[in-house]
Specification:
There is one protein chain. By secondary structure, this protein is of the alpha+beta class. It folds into two domains: 71 residues, Alpha-Beta Plaits (2-Layer Sandwich); 248 residues, no CATH class. The protein has twelve helices and four strands; from the N terminus they run βαββαβαααααααααα. It has a four-stranded antiparallel β-sheet, covered by helices on one side. Helix 3 crosses helix 12 and helix 7 runs antiparallel to helix 12. It is globular and about 65 Å long. It starts with a strand and ends in a 10-residue tail after the last helix.
Length: 340
């Protein structure tokens, strides 16, 4: 007999978590329908579980979700903010920001410049994105695909194809987005609006990484769920070129960091510049995703994850604020504030 159960999802942070939770639970034989909610941090599961109690069902379903950092429970988990994490996160973030500004002054990277797009920023945002909960869905894809192909004794080639597909697709599709910006002939107002959106998206992402304002998670933008689910479903197709296709599909997965860089690429109006922005971003995600490919690395499970995410959050908030200031300066609304 089919019954519907509602469970609280512990560890849910963003829309990517919603998609990942639904995709993983839908693959369980006893489950016929799944609907997760970021607003309530919950999931409705419909299925036939026999005489099992809700507690037993939650425990069994949690086994599938635990590798991704989620667990199910009947009682809502009390949110605890570990403010002591900031004791280390703030000085580390300030040191990183100071180092990056130094590189800006030396002309090695272009962090803050209204007339040019920052490839250095795109790379660093990629680094941050690769260890954020927002990229959990990509990490889940990598690990699932690794497991599928390892069963057949092929563990290296699929990983290489995945990363090649990801880098090439981000370069090509980033260029397409940049070219579209040229076709639309974005004027000053259009560029200002898109720059403002990028700044706000980065601010929301950074605030979410700080994990001190639960309500902010509901503001995080995402692509339509069906796009992400279709891309995520590719991992179940067992074909030689599947890893390549999965790598390409990650361009369309619901990650706010990716989308902010895609919007940024649109403002360039250039195929080459758009390509290089998205390529730099993908290159930034490569180190951690490569470690995920060949190991069981899971930063979100480590004891120091709170400090790590808060540090990353402060850095992203910094990028968001400076992008916001630059958008206002570029539109002539405020005079230049910083001279670097």
């Amino acid at each position: 007999m089919q019954k519907t159960y509602t469970f609280n999802v512990n560890g849910m942070h963003c829309n990517a978590c919603v998609m990942l939770t639904e995709s993983e639970l839908n693959e369980i034989v006893e489950v016929s329908h799944v609907k997760a909610s970021l607003a309530n941090f919950s999931v409705e599961v419909t299925g036939e579980f026999g005489d099992k109690t809700p507690e037993q069902i939650a425990e069994e379903l949690s086994v599938v979700l635990k590798p991704h950092g989620y667990t199910l429970s009947l009682e809502k988990e009390e949110k605890k903010i570990n403010w002591s994490d900031f004791n280390l996160a703030i000085p580390v973030a300030l040191g990183f920001i100071a180092f990056f500004i130094l590189l800006q002054k030396l002309g090695i990277v272009n962090l803050i410049n209204v007339s040019k797009v920052s490839f250095g920023t795109a790379f660093v945002v990629g680094l941050v994105a690769s260890v954020s909960t927002c990229m959990a869905v990509v990490g889940g894809l990598v690990l699932s695909m690794s497991a599928n192909f390892s069963k057949e004794g092929d563990s290296v080639r699929p990983q290489v194809l995945f990363h090649i597909g990801r880098l090439v697709s981000f370069f090509v599709l980033g260029g397409v987005i940049g070219a579209l910006g040229s076709a639309f002939q974005l004027g000053t107002i259009g560029t200002f609006i898109l720059s403002l959106i990028v700044a706000l998206v980065l601010l929301i992402l950074g605030i979410n990484l700080l994990d001190i304002f639960p309500w902010a998670k509901k503001l995080q933008p995402t692509m339509p769920n069906f796009v992400g689910k279709y891309a995520h479903g590719l991992k179940n197709i067992n074909h030689t070129l599947t890893p390549l296709l999965v790598g390409v599909a990650t361009f369309f997965l619901p990650c706010g960091f990716t989308q902010s860089m895609q919007i940024y690429s649109l403002t360039t109006g250039s195929f080459i510049t758009g390509s290089l922005i998205m390529f730099a971003f993908a290159l930034g995600t490569l180190p951690v995703l490569s470690l995920l490919s060949f190991s069981s690395l899971g930063i979100h499970k480590k004891a120091q994850s709170g400090i790590f995410f808060k540090t990353a959050g402060l850095v992203v908030v910094f990028f968001g604020i400076f992008n916001l200031i630059n958008a206002l300066v570029g539109a002539g609304i405020i005079p230049p504030i910083f001279n670097f």
